[in-house]
Amino acid sequence: MQNALDELRHYNQIKASVDNLAERIAIIDEQMRAINSALGNETIKGGGIDNKLDGLIDRKKELESELIIRQKQLTIMNTALDSLTDTERMIMQRFYVDGIIPVKANEILQDELCVDESTVWRLKKQVIPKYLIAAAEC
Known about the structure:
The protein is built from 6 helices and no strands. The chain is mainly α. The longest helix has 36 residues, at 47-82.
């Protein structure tokens, strides 16, 4: 269950990696098209071009597998966050997604929610199990 909170701490990096992986896959697709276009109808077995194409195909498969994993992580986190109330989501956002140190996150939430410090800590303690259950159900 701690893993779900650790992943949430890396939400922004995971989200950025989805875009990055998609871009890298598109670049490999372009490189493969260029090689195939240069070859035309010729079939060359062995040698540098064949090895290059095989390497690109293997790399693309690796990136696609990684993309699927990251997309699934993002879906789980988004679904779990969407199951929370606005206040609960805000708490998870400040403490986990935004990367703010806990004391500062508490101060920010005190201002945003117009509550005292102990109330923020209590709310955080209450929302964590709710988030973890929602994430586990995905």
